[in-house]
Structure prediction request, 729 residues.
Amino acid sequence: MLLEVKGLRVSLGSSEILKNVSFKVEKGEVVGLLGPNGSGKSTLLRTIFGVLKPLGGVVYFNGKNLAELERKDVAKLLGYLPQEASDTGLKVKEVVMLGRTPYIHGISFKEGDLTAVREALRLVGLSDFEERRFFELSGGEKQKVMLARVFAQHTDVLLLDEPTAHLDISSQLEIMGLIRSRVREGCSALLAIHDINLASAYCDRLLLIKRGEIFAAGKPEEVITRENIREVYGADVEVRRIGGNILVIPSRKRESEKEKWVHVICGGGSGTELIRELWLHGYKVSAGVLNALDSDWFAASEIGEVIDEQPFSEISDDAFVKNLEFIEKADIVILSNLTVGKGNLRNLEAALYAAKLGKLLVVEEEEFEKRNFAGSEAAEIYNEISSSVPQSKVFKKSHELIKSLRTSS
Amino acid sequence: MRLTSFQLFTILLVADAIALIAGIGIGSSGVNFNFLESPLSEKIILDYRLPRTLLSMIVGAGLAAAGCSLQALFRNPLADPYILGVSSGASVGAAFVILFGIASTINIMLSAFFFAIVTCWVVYRIGKTETGIPVYTLLLAGVAMAAFLSGVTSLLIYISALDIYKVVFWIMGGFWTANWLKVQAVSIPILASSLYLILSSWNLNAILIGEEHAMSVGIDVEAFKKRVIAATALLTSAAVSVSGVIGFVGLITPHSMRLIAGENNRILLPASLLAGAAFMPFVDLISRTATTGEIPVGIITAMLGAPFFLYLLRRSKVAA
Prediction:
């Protein structure tokens, strides 16, 4: 392995910041260090590079004990980027040239040093910035210049302390992308990072640190769990998986036990807004019957329980019966402004059932005829629904419905 | 206006040459560029004007280089060569010797140098902690030490009664006591320290973006700080011991150059050194020819230097 940290212990003053930390970083890996403020992420990076002397433990690079090397030689192996850089009137190329310091003998540069600087600036897309003064740049540009500085150092490992701190989303993605592409070219990166979602998206492995110890290590999906986050950060979150990404979102506050269950009969995107709004306002939400991969299905499955059916198939008996069960259990049932065809005709029957139970609210943005592709049978059912639902429970817009729902409860 | 480094250094070297020639050719005994026309003028030039001009060039170059290095090292635009208490230490040293009535040129020089270097060492010991030399404790230690020592100097001045003017004149700084011995004594420490600082200019650049960044590119920052502090302490103490406390040169010269040459110490530091070597003899020339007597150089550096600096500052603001 490339970098191996063994039994690292570090104290600052009287408090122990790192307690027996051991892990490895392999070639071609991006490893993220996660943990709350003060958990020891920065201290770990600083100790690995040798800014801080550990009480115990060793850092090996390809089997070599780094503590036995000169500073200059360590700087040829590990590219360490501290979090904050002072503003300076140095030009961009002069800042990037600092990355060549370990290779300079005396005071003169070689042609190779200039090439390395130009190449690094090209990698971060700032070739035109050579002559600009560092302090004139934006936060994102400054961080890219600092990255170019580490790139110009030509090291096998990057140690980056919160490379995306204080940056806007586009700069964050750009910086993480640059780090990834550098790693693809054959080095490795160990980075302290605060943003769990960003870390999960860009890191191969994560180390979750709690008060100076590694609490969990592994692939993002193994490390980022509701339990681990609660244990390490003391925060209540929901962890969702979306298309291979992990998304940590605040757990909505459940104010009391009398939370209402709203079941939404929808499809084709007619329920997405409803589902989201209901969820935001703290209702328990379910939806059905929806064909898998329908846009409403995506929205609903992120948030609550869904009764689903195979894509592009008619509603089966099982799904229909389950839908009726949900309607019975739910406090409120909403029929969205959905389009009806042969495939989902039975959703109308389910809505009628809800109407008979007195639980149905209807969103009717357009007249039903315009949305009906299932013929007179559907029209008849809809008429029956309309006649059994009082006018006060029919709304022109989703948000009007939500408003009335909130004021009545 | 942006000059290439080649243009800048050419201009500065020409300025140095003009300063040298003017310093030798012009004096209170008249303007005379035909240097060796008579035994008298030969004596004036070789024994008096030449060592005086050379001494002012060396001192000016050294103070400018030291100021420039310390501004970078402390990342503080207000740093000057006297930040470690050199001037107040040297003043006490000079005042002591004068008070005890043993004020020969060489005694003042040795005593001032000794007190200055000891003061630096004490400030350094106070400012240093187990893990390193935090900039702010060092600066504060320097300020506190200077306050204490200027109290001591005032006391010595107060006691010395009749010799008051000697001490005050010495503190104001000047080159009227210049001779070849002084040139020989200080040229080696000042030039060697300056050379070391120029060779360190790259590391000073790294310090500009932060000490931790400097470490990350492989510089042993604490050891480097120690060496720069030692070099500037030696240089400044040597300069003060032969010329008294000449203010502003070490502060203003690097700043003026920074506005023209940019922040890169590889260019800025040698440029400041050359500019100091031109500025100082020029100011000294004014001090010895402006009136029938001598005006201490420190007065003129302040009165000329500060407005010039403000002009540069103003202009760079407009440009930006």
Summary: Chain A has 15 helices and 18 strands.
